[in-house]
Structure formats: C-alpha cells, structure tokens
Amino acid sequence: MNEIYPNFQEPKFSRQLYFEITGWAGRHFKKRKSKITPTKLPLLLDIGVGANYMDGWTHIDFYIFRLKFWKKYSQYRKPEIETDLRYPLNCPSNVVDGVYSGHTLEHLYPNHAFQLLGEIFRVLKPKCWLRINVPDLKYAIDFYNGKISIPEYKYKAEAIGDLTQNWLHHSVWDEELLSKALEIKGFINIRKVEFGAEGTDKRLIKEEGVRLVGTLVIEAQKP
To answer: What is the residue range of 99's domain?
Structure first.
C-alpha cells in the first residue's frame, strides 16, 4: 500500500470524458428536468444534494442517465432537478424561500463557484437565506501548523494535498474567502454558524453527521 497519499484518487480521463458528455447531453436533451418552478411551498432548494434527501425539499444534482434494467443504479433516488451547476440555474428570479448547499462549491472551479453564488442570490426571495458548507482550509492549515491533530494523516502536506487535489476538488475555501465572495454577490448578515445546530432559518439546518469534522458552515441573507 502506498504510505504517501494512501487515499488519493487520480482522476481518470474516462470519468472526465463521461462527465462532459453527460453534461452536454443533459443540457440539450433534459432541459425540462432542469427547470425549477415553485410547485412546492415553501420552495427550499438543496443544491448538490448527493444523498442528503429530506421531505419538503427540491433536490438538485447533476444529470442522471439511467437504464431501468440496470439494477446497480435503479435503486438510487433521482433528484427532482437535474442540471449542470457550471451554468445558470433554470429558475425565475426572487422565487426561492431558502437554499442549502453542502460540500458542493469546492467541486467547481473558482469562476463557476462565484457564478453559482450569484445565481443563488438571484433566485432567492428578498430577506431569505442561504446556508452553505464546504471543507474548511483552515482545518488543514491548523494541522499543518501543529495546532490540532488529525489521526488519518501521517504527513502534514498530505492533509493539504487531500483537500486541494483529491475528491475532484477544484477550489478551496475558508471563512474569509467565502464570506468575501458572498459579500461581493450582494449578500448581507454573513456569518459562520455552528454545524448542524445554529442558524437563523432553522429549516435550512440539514448538515450530514459524517461531515461534522473539518466543515465550515456559513449563512447569508439576501437583502
């Protein structure tokens, strides 16, 4: 077993190609699946849902092309909205009552991440809230500087590499950078909140317990 970066997953060309082909096909042939309409009231969006489904929410994730007879994948739940978050949300402005996004922003390159924050701002109703969480760069830096212990890492640089280059991560965030990005997009009342507990809009508290360690949670309001 490789003792240096033992859990590092080198992205395969085939996977990247599949992602791009799926994104192209989805944008051209599944346009109706990307349309967000206020059929559920209140309209709460989970952007990049993964497996974090909850009743009362409209869940958004990447396009899924699945054959019904393929049992390996037919059992998994499909999100109500399928889209490519690198592109604008297919949603009217000022119609969404709240947005949650967990461990999604880091999978976008900075320009796409910044664009998504702007789209979230656009679709939110005035006075409504965004709750967003990402892997916290400060957590890895604190380990590197000897301030905390993270048992799963043997080497200090391994923690930095795991956050910045593994898991298909394309951007890194800390409280300062994410708060500034939200401010530039027009959000107010931006603050770090306690994972799974603290928050102005209690409906938006839906962090997954497995994400507890090393996660930064920020809330922000549209004026």
So the answer is: 35-57+84-221
Whether 19 maps to a domain, the answer reads no
Q: Is the pTM of this model over 0.90?
A: yes
If DSSP codes are grouped into helix, strand and coil, which group holds residue 220? strand
pLDDT for the residue numbered 76: 61
Annotate 82-107 with b (16+ C-beta within 10 A) or e (fewer).
bbbbeeebbbeeeebbbbbbbbbbbb
Can you list the alpha helix ranges (DSSP code H) found in the chain? 13-29, 71-74, 110-123, 137-144, 156-165, 175-185
Going by the DSSP 8-state scheme, the letter that residue 192 receives in this structure is E
Asked whether the beta carbons of 184 and 209 are under 8 A apart, the reply is: no
Q: What is the CATH number of the domain that holds 171?
A: 3.40.50.150
Let me know: does 159 contact 185? Beta carbons within 8 Å: no
Residue 148: inside a domain, yes or no?
Answer: yes
User: How far is the C-alpha of 132 from the C-alpha of 13, rounded, in Å?
Assistant: 30
Split into its structural domains, the chain has a count of 1
For 38-50, the pLDDT digits (tens) are: 877 899 999 999 9
- Per the CB < 8 A criterion, the answer to whether 100 and 56 are in contact is no
- Going by their DSSP bridges, the two strands 81-82 and 215-221 should be labelled as unpaired
